[in-house]
């Protein structure tokens, strides 16, 4: 079974631009979560989607948004990029949105803002 | 904020057991203990989880104290490939979310 895939793997953007990152969950998984990882803040939860609905949102500004499609694929968008948005963005999928279930992470997208 | 406390770093000799402790003194009755690890620049990898009983799988064993206020992840025969950051996470089992709150984790260095 193929794992979680994220595209692109690496991205360089300029301050003020916007960016869209994509995540394809494991086949059959309906829950997708996004995380941001930086050296200073560690791994921080961004948001979670289940059946095209946002179920939970972390403490990030409105410049960070996401969506989930009917095939469970998810995208996240960051508008008006700032230098501090440089990070590894990780996507995780799981079968259930509730109850006990492990999450499977993708390799991440490394975003550099210059 | 993370509900767990872990040592910042640990060393282990290759071939020996690695015992990684985690304190979660405020854990609730319906909260599970999860362990993930992250090898440098890769996505975190699920290892194991448990509620109150000890658990074992092909990767590791999880020992949870009777009062559930602490736990230990055991890698029975550590290899160099087990060098990683290990995260202990407490998460509500019946909660309506897949959200994980990561702490700083323990950096395990396996040495030859």
Descriptors:
heterodimer; A: 114 residues; mainly beta; seven-stranded mixed sheet; globular; B: 112 residues; five-stranded mixed sheet; four-stranded antiparallel sheet; 0% helix; 46% strand
Overall mean confidence score, pLDDT of chain A: 93
Strand content of chain B: over 45%
Q: How large a portion of the residues of chain A is in β-strands, by DSSP E?
A: over 45%
Number of helices of chain A: 0
> What share of residues of chain A is helical?
under 10%
Instruction: Characterize the main sheet of chain A.
Output: 7 strands, mixed
Terminal residue distance of chain B: 36 Å
Look at the helices and sheets of chain A and give the structural class.
mainly beta
Number of strands of chain A: 11
Alpha carbon gyration radius of chain B: 13 Å
Q: Helix- and strand-based class of chain B?
A: mainly beta
Shape label of chain B: globular
Tally of helical segments of chain B = 0
Please give the radius of gyration of chain A in angstroms: 13 Å
Q: What order do the helices and strands of chain B follow?
A: EEEEEEEEE
Major sheet summary line of chain B: 5 strands, mixed
Query: What is the N-to-C succession of helices and strands of chain A?
Result: EEEEEEEEEEE
Q: Which whole number gives the mean pLDDT of chain B?
A: 92
Strand order of the largest sheet of chain B: 1-9-8-3-4
Q: What portion of residues of chain B is helical?
A: under 10%
**Poorly predicted runs of 5 or more residues of chain A:** none
């Amino acid at each position: 079974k193929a794992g979680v895939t994220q595209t692109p793997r690496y991205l360089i953007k300029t301050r003020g631009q916007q960016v869209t990152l994509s995540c394809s969950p494991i086949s059959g998984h309906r829950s997708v979560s996004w995380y941001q990882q930086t050296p200073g803040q560690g791994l921080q939860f961004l948001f979670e989607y289940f059946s095209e609905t946002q179920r939970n949102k972390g403490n990030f500004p409105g410049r960070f948004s996401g969506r989930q499609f009917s095939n469970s694929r998810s995208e996240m968008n960051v508008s008006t990029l700032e230098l501090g948005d440089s990070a590894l963005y990780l996507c995780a999928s799981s079968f259930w949105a509730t109850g006990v279930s492990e999450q499977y992470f993708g390799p991440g997208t490394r975003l550099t803002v210059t | 904020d993370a509900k767990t406390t872990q040592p910042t770093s640990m060393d282990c000799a290759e071939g020996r057991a690695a015992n990684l402790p985690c304190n979660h003194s405020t854990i609730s009755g319906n909260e599970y203990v999860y362990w993930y690890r992250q090898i440098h620049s890769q996505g975190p990898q699920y290892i194991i989880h448990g509620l109150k009983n000890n658990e074992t799988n092909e990767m590791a064993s999880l020992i949870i104290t009777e009062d559930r206020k602490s736990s230990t992840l055991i890698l029975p025969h550590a290899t160099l490939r087990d060098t990683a950051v290990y995260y202990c996470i407490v998460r509500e089992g019946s909660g309506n979310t897949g959200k994980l709150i990561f702490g700083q984790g323990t950096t395990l260095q396996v040495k030859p």
